[in-house]
Amino acid sequence: MxxxxxxxxxxxxxDPPVRTLMGPGPSDIHPRVLQAMAxxxxxxxxxxxxxxxxxxxxxxxxxxxxxxxxxxxxxxxxSAGMECCMVNVIEPGDRVVIAQNGVFGGRMADIADRLGAxxxxxxxxxxxxxxxEAIREAVAGKPTKLVGVVHAETSTxxxxxxPEIAEIAHEVDALLLADCVTSLGGTPVKLDEWGVDLAYSxxxxxxxxxxxxxxxxxxxRAVQALKNRxxxxxxxxxxxxxxxxxxxxxxxYHHTAPINMLYGLREALLIVLEExxxxxxxxxxxxxxxxxxxxEAMGLSMLVPADYRLPQLNTVVIPDGVDDAAVRRALxxxxxIEIGGxxxxxxxxxxxxxxxxxxxxxxxxxxxxxxxxxxxVQQGAAIQPGAGLAAAAKVGA
Length: 397
Fold this sequence. Notes:
- The mean pLDDT is 95.
- It is globular and about 65 Å long.
- Strand 6 (152-153) and strand 7 (158-159) form a beta hairpin.
- By secondary structure, the protein is an alpha/beta fold.
- The relative contact order is 0.16.
- The chain has 15 helices and 15 strands.
- It starts with a helix and ends with a helix.
- Helices cover 43% and strands 15% of the residues.
- This is Alanine--glyoxylate aminotransferase family protein.
- Keywords: Aminotransferase, Pyridoxal phosphate, Transferase.
- Residues 41-342 form the Aminotransferase class V domain.
């Protein structure tokens, strides 16, 4: 047998399993996005590509509901977006207040600490929201550069209201940073109306695009903070003062853009905006309510109260005596459904069930509820067979 043929046998044709992605991300990719990504690659300074860059920026402004000129996708996942926003405005010694009610608020604090900031971390238990007065108390009396808040906490499913916090931050001339990784494209994000200065997201959640890009947006206040820096931005790759030359008017080379990923993002944004923001938000809300009704009718409970619960990321409390990993393994192996386990303080205590973007469909809710019921019955859990599907059907009617 020829040597190269033997080598190929060791690496057969790639054939990943087809899954229904109902975890905290990535979500199911829309077929139109996959098709767009297969288009021929062109240069990152090609006039046709430059035209597409303009389109992407305009589409992102619509989705973020902002007029911020500095709105563009960073090459990297949502965590790169987080780091991009923070590294460009934070300098050593800056006082930074971080509100942590989940894993990703903790990640914000970690990045700020690595940048040499004076980090003040305020915390509430995972699954709870912050009251504005907690932020007011943290910023009172001391010059504060930035207040960081997670709008949609992926580890818990909490949606944090931002307008009141923005007002408090601006009273002390601080910037407001918002993590919108799981909210953008699933629930309203209104940067200008709410007064958010820096925001970042990711493509792999409600945009139903593969992971690899992080949309960010900088307000004029944030741009001014960047211009007023006394020290150089410590990251070359994420230095917005240089990225501006590529995503701004000059289109000067900085790094090679991920061409085909940007094809996919453009198509993903078009899909959302063609459906219409109000319709997209209503769809996520409706299917989230179907899932919650079904879960609760089985006798299970949700971690997050309804008034600040994300419809696209649902944290289900694991019943006593139920094997967390065994349930998730059975869902994956027997039904090809992926959900997520708990992170941090919630490890082993909750399941994270995503209904994001293209995955937010009625058939996914019904299939998941039927599969979960079957698995829980096999584990001997005290649930009411059939009740979950009946309750979901009633909401979905």
